Amino acid sequence: MAGITISKNKKLGFDVNRVADAVYTILNQTGKLSAEVNSVDEEYIKELNRSTRGIDRVTDVLSYPSLDDVRYKNVTLKDFPLDVDGSGKRVFLGSIVICEKRAKEQAKEFGHSLDRELCYLCAHGFLHLFGYDHITEEDDREMRALADKAMEILNVTR
Length: 158
What we know:
Layout: E1 4-8, H1 16-26, E2 33-40, H2 42-53, E3 61-65, E4 91-99, H3 100-110, H4 114-129, H5 137-154
Parallel strand pairs: 1-2, 2-4
Antiparallel strand pairs: 3-4
Helix pairs in contact: 1-4, 1-5, 3-4, 4-5
């Protein structure tokens, strides 16, 4: 499908492109998009969490959306002509940062595979880039349901 082009800092322990395509599909996107997904160590994600959110602890995933007010919208170059990546041909959604060490710990804690945990965290991150959040209980239910749909498409089970 290649709806979302991914740039990344290293080979990640899962197929980021498949996760991006699953989220793109469940959200009925049609535009040419791009995003950045990076794997970082605990120290780096803790510093990011502290400096950007004021929370001084290690976390599993952080998302940095580039667009505002895109929830429930089809993101296209026509509507976001100034929010493009380096190619100038794709709308840049933002960045996702994943701590694979924390993901390993959580996979063990939750009793499922590392692949499942990484895919879920990545799907969660992409949903944030598309304007979803989990501040209220209702928003949290909606976001979890969408992440679960992405996991079904990926055929990655608990």
